Amino acid sequence: GTKASVPSNVTLSGLASESYCNFHPSKVAKYCAANTLDKTLAAPGDCSTWFYSVGALDSDRKALDSCRGLGKSGCHIEDRRGDLCFTMAVPDWALGHFKNYCAAKTPKNFFMASDASQLWWQHESKVQDGKCPGCYLYDHNGARCPCSGPGDMRCKIQACMQYQPYWCWATSVAMVAGYYFPHRYPNTKGDGPNCRGLECKIVGEFHYPTTPDICCQDKDRCRNDSAPSGAFLIKALNRYTQMTWTRVAGTVDPLMLRRVLMDGHMVLWDVTMVGGGGHVMVMGGTDGMGNFYIHDSMNADGKGSFQTLPWGGVLSYLMPWGDHGIGTLSGVYVPSSYAGQAR
Asked: What is the mean pLDDT of the chain?
């Protein structure tokens, strides 16, 4: 990792957090110190206190429930990902360090003091801030990094949090729909209308066709509604992307995937987890150098949810969330026009 402190005779500049309560980082230090970007902070209308949730499938709801549970009024989401923990953006003097961080392979983490007076970054999976006392986690896996070029698909695939245990399939479809139709299904900072609005709509339409709004009205009722088959997922993809999709099972030809990705299409893939059961994730893109961008819908940090892996790493993928071990790629979903190009 690299550590840096502000040089002398430097004027810091940056944007202060735009929030309703305008909490100073010192006011919410415990929230800021949580070394994850999967966190949400809520506050009542009078800003007299605050509540936060970390690592929940639905962090928004958990934080709001804590606020409302004490009889507070005007409870609202004040912050996600820890944005309010920084009163300054990365200053000019530190941009070189940030550029080096952005160029590094994942996993990686970037720590910074709330006033941007010092920073430190590490190139390893375990999040540790001991070498930058008082610093908070500013970035994970490049979420705040600028896109490397027009072919970087991460710029178009913004976060959409999986809000229920078995909604990974609907979350993935929502992200793909937002990729092809960004104005109709906007993906914005993990809280775009598609995240709850489209996910619950997809689940409701396909599980409860006579009452399609039920999952949006009471999503907990639908918390265990997974996709029972690949055909189920394909039907949803066909509908929301207005193109036909095909599942390629078994051994997948990486050359076919490169064709799909380099043509600007997304790819969904199935993973069989080490303990059994399936999980649908999204392959975001490739850098054309044999590395692939992988996005897991269990993460919520836009570009920061991507891991950069060689093809061999994709075939034996270490889950980025929890202690779930290594998953096995069992098939991919691609636009049908490419399916015949597989071996």
From this structure: 81
Two tokens at 83?
A: 């944005």
Rounded-to-10 torsion of CA 213, 185, 187, 84: -60
SS3 state of residue 11:
coil
Tokens of 209: 């066709």
Can you give the length of the chain in residues? 343
Task: Residue 113: name the closest of 27, 4, 37 by CA.
Answer: 4
Rounded Cα distance, 22 and 87, in Å: 10
Report helix, strand or coil for 240. Answer: helix
Domains of the chain with bracketed CATH: 2-11+87-140 (no CATH), 25-85 (no CATH), 153-339 (3.90.70.10)
**pLDDT tens, position by position, 141-186:** 887 887 766 667 777 776 677 778 888 889 889 889 988 988 888 7
Q: Enumerate residues 6+ apart whose C-beta is below 8 A from 46.
A: 74
Count of H-run helices and E-run strands, the chain: 11, 14
Q: In angstroms, how far is the first alpha carbon of the chain from the final one?
A: 42
Instruction: Give the three-class secondary structure for 117.
Output: coil
Nearest to 284 by CA among 301, 273, 300, 268: 268
Q: Are the C-beta atoms of residues 328 and 271 closer than 8 Å to each other? A: yes
Contact 67/48 with Cβ under 8 angstroms? Answer: no
Compute the distance between CA of residue 38 and CA of residue 170 in angstroms, rounded to an integer. Answer: 20
Q: Which pTM was predicted? A: 0.76
Residue 338, H or E segment: helix 336-339
Residues 290-315: tens digit of each pLDDT = 677 777 665 555 555 677 777 776 66
